[in-house]
Structures are given as C-alpha cells and as structure tokens.
Amino acid sequence: MPDAPLRAGFGARLAEAVSRRGPLCVGIDPHPSLLHAWQLGESPQALERFAMTVVEALADRVALLKPQSAFFEAYGSAGIAVLEKVIAESQQAGALVLLDVKRGDIGSTMTAYAMAYLDERAPLAVDAITVSPYLGYGSLAPAIGLAEQNGRGVFVLARTSNPEGVGLQQSVHGSGDTVGQYIVDSAAESNLGKEPMGHVGVVAGATIPAGELDFSDLNGPILAPGLGAQGATVKDLKAVFGRALPHVLPTTSRDVLRHGPEVKSLRDTHTRLADDINHQLND
C-alpha cells in the first residue's frame, strides 16, 4: 500500500486555490517572439528576466501558473536553473505550478519521468504535469500513481486545440468511442470516489465543437487552452463544456504576456480577463 500523501490531494488543493483566486490559468511561455517584443533578446539572462517578471506580476494572484518546459529546455542547464527558480518562487507566492511537459512513455522510462516531476525530492517537483496517453492510457500508471501518493496531479491530453490533432483524437477507439472520449472516460475511472474531485485532469481545447465530448463523469479538472490567439472566446466556454464548466480552467498565455514587460500592465490584463471569465461563468 502506498504511503499517505504528504499534503491534501491535488483535486482538493486545486479547488481551494480556484475558490480564492479564480479559474484562469496563465502560461509562462518565453517564446522568442515575446522575448524580442519585450526587447530582451535571447539569452539565459533574458529568459530569467521574462519568466521572473511574470512570476512577480501573477504568482500571488492566479491559482495556476503553467510554465512551458520546452522554452526553458532550449537554453540547456541555464534554462533548467531558471525553471527551478520559477517553480520555487511561484509556489512560495501561493500559486500551484502545472509544468507543461507532455511526457509519455512506457515502463521504467515513464517511471523516471514521474520521479523527475512528481517525487518529493526532485529539483523540478511541481504540483502537476501534462502527460500524453498515446502509448496507451495504462502506460501513464506510474505518473498517475505517484501523483496520487504525493498529493500532486496529472493532466492527460484528450482533445487538444491544435488542428493537427483532430484526425487522431476524433478517430474511433476499440471501445467504440472516439479516442478523445475514451481518454476522458479513462481519467474518470481514475477519479472515482474522490472528493471534491480527483487528481487526474484532462486537456480539452476551448476551440473544440460544443458537445463533442461528455465530461459529466470526469470528476476532475479540465485544462482548456485556446483562448485568445487560437480563436476561442470566454463565451465559447459555456457552449463547449456545459455542466462541466465549474471544473474548467481556461488557459491563456500570449493574450496576457504580450502586455509586458511592465508588471502593472500584466496585472491589469490578468484582472480584466479574469473578471470577464468570472462574469461569464456566473451569468
């Protein structure tokens, strides 16, 4: 039997954070175009200036920050050092950190990925990670199990917001459902009986057609990318997610980050967007 979690379950921690700070998740994506827009150039020092400005502006007011690991990895060990700092200081300010790494593998390799991000002793330990189920949902068992043991979470790619994913994710699985629905239903099984919700979330874009997926049994959070630059609006959330809306975490990156580098501008943009989301969700 696994040891008891050292903290409350991820579902409970996330629900509490959202109740205080709202559901909006902001990505930290140090894309080269944004670094240049901020007049920082491309270097480890520029990366740190960008990322830590976002942390300063938002970590004390959002429930969830989502660093995109690839943009840090691109700078090698110096970039990973910045990522460690982002994680530590974001958590110190009260934000949960969802590291967008989209890991997926089998056996001992998946276990190693899980240990890298979900183990208590890991330098890159975060509150949750994104994972890819396309080697089979069962291949994610090491991450799902370690996350539950340590009070952390995983978000499984189900129906992403990029157009290239449609053909695969809408194809028919052996269960008779679409691949996307099969992943949602598999996550639901992992979350059975958990209160107030389970630790296995799914990623489902705010740009997908309304009613395509049934989230009614998920009992877990839904990360919904696609707001702004990818075409989805706050009004689309109700149509796409319906009764699952209370568990939705609308996600944006560029629509907030392009308003830097001033901390006040980033905060003001976040406040406007968060207020719009809260108004739409409570209307």
Automatic annotation (TrEMBL):
The keyword Lyase applies. It comes from the Bacteria. The keyword Membrane does not apply. Its EC number is 4.1.1.23. Residues 23-269 form the Orotidine 5'-phosphate decarboxylase domain. Signal peptide: none annotated. GO terms for biological process: 'de novo' pyrimidine nucleobase biosynthetic process; 'de novo' UMP biosynthetic process. Keywords: Decarboxylase, Lyase, Pyrimidine biosynthesis. InterPro entries: Aldolase_TIM, OMPdecase_AS, OMPdecase_type-2, OMPdeCOase_dom, RibuloseP-bd_barrel. This is Orotidine 5'-phosphate decarboxylase. It comes from Saccharopolyspora terrae. The lineage of its organism: Bacteria, Bacillati, Actinomycetota, Actinomycetes, Pseudonocardiales.
